[in-house]
Amino acid sequence: MKKLVLGALLAVASSVGCGTSGGGDVTVDVSWSFTHFATNAPRSCPTGYGTANIVSQTTDDTTHLGAGAKIIDKFNCSDGGGTIVLPDNDTFLVWVEITSDSGGSLYAQTEETFVDTAGAVPPINVEIFDDAGFFFLEWDLVDARNRNAPLTCDQAGVAGASGAIDASATVAGGSRLFTDKFTCSDHFGTTDPILAGTYTVSVSATVNDIAVGTAPELTNRTIGAPNKLTDLGLVLIPIN
User: Fold this and answer.
1) Domain extent listing, the chain
2) For the segment 119-147, what is each residue's pLDDT rounded down to a tens digit?
3) Which of 132, 141, 221, 225 is most buried, taking the most CB atoms under 10 A from its CB?
4) What is the dihedral of CA 87, 89, 95, 99, to 10 degrees?
5) pTM for this one?
6) Domain 132-239 of CATH type 3.40.50.720
């Protein structure tokens, strides 16, 4: 399970900087690699896409979604990694974009990593899959016995170590492929990588792996490649 968010896709237009950010004093090592998900075989930088941008964006303190100005540090894709410098005592989303040298064409964008520069930041390692992608989802809980009134995770009894939000995917009309677990109070999450294809997704609130509420199935949801992020939108989970 990866608790990464969709801030860059939700953020408003922002200013761009290049190189290290002014006044920053926290270094962050970021590396990237390419993988064929079906066989776990390594891949190299795609032809015609020789630039890797490490993008950092400040986050909103309440939502933890990207909301501030972007800092863009440019590297050669073939470098396989780079070091950036961020202002201390702030929070960021950090991700990698693989683009053409002109910047006019995007090959893939990685998932985003939440970074808190109040202390030392561990290295960030991201994989780019040429045949797989991810689902992103948000969720809220509602009281099925009270006209779907909003519920907190605590009110629904889904808080704590025993509670979770489970997202399961099956090949359309086929067998279950995975179940990702998320912390209820996060209210958003990104699945582990999924082979490109069409899926049915079921989202449940669980306590000790027993469902206490399940949202209507999301059918015909498509995962694209390379490394595409498919937004499932806001899922309302009725609690009985």
Assistant:
1) 7-129, 132-239
2) 889 999 999 999 999 999 999 999 999 99
3) 141
4) -10
5) 0.81
6) no
